[in-house]
Every structure is written in structure tokens, then in C-alpha cells.
Amino acid sequence: MKKKDILSSLFWMAVGLGVSYGGYDLELGSLREPGSGFVFFWVGLLMFGLSLGVCIQALRKEGAAGELKALWAGVQWKKVAYVLAALVLYAWAFLSLGFIVCTILLLIFLFKVVEPQRWSVAVFGAVLSALSGYVVFNLWLGTQLPRGIMKIM
What we know:
Blueprint: H1 2-26, H2 38-60, H3 67-72, H4 77-97, H5 99-114, H6 119-140
């Protein structure tokens, strides 16, 4: 496991450096007026730093036998499949149903099937989360989200 951690961390360190270089090349700007590469530069540095930490940790410790088995022990594969299928369906229906309707349906499904909640909690949490996301992205940040069937109204 130790060798895999070292190799994967070296790969992600290289990716982080590449992302940072690309961001720097796009122009950083300043903290008050960030350029188009500002976020990429800092995300790349963060990737590099986290990967460096994993590499150092892998170099320091001995590889534990069965570490990979312990990592996947207790994973509920049915729930993983449900979430993946729900996300694919969400992406497929996103433009036609719109952000609000699609997000509410996805969250109700996740709240009821993946981590079962009471109906009142699932519906209230889904509506509140979808509307909060709409307010943040559409109204506050000015991002255009698909209206879908809400165009009629």
C-alpha cells in the first residue's frame, strides 16, 4: 500500500503543479479583483500541498497488511449504486425539468432512500436546500440555471 500511496501522491502533486501553472498563465489578478486563473492557481497549490502530505505520511509509515480491505469494509454497495443512478438521472433531466424541480426530487430521494428520514424532514430539507441553492447561484451570483418546466409559470 505504501508504494501505491507514494505513486498516487506524486501523480496528484504533478497535476496540482500543472493546474497552478495553468492558473498562473491565465493571470492571477489580486484578492480584490481576481483574474481568470486565480482560483485555479490556489486550488492547484492546495492539491500539491495535500498530495505532499500524503507522500510524506506514506514515506514515514510501514504499509499495513489488509489496509485496502479495511478501507472498503462495511461499504453498502446498493446505496452507492442508488446514488450513482440518481445522479445520472439528475443530469439527464436537469435541462428539461429545471434546477429547482430536479434538485428537490434528487434530495427527497437521497433523504428517503440513502439515509432514511421522516417525510416532513425529507421534503422540508429538499425544498429549503434547492431554494437556497437557487438564491445563492441565480440571484446572488447571477448564474443562469435551467428553468425547465418552471418556464410556464
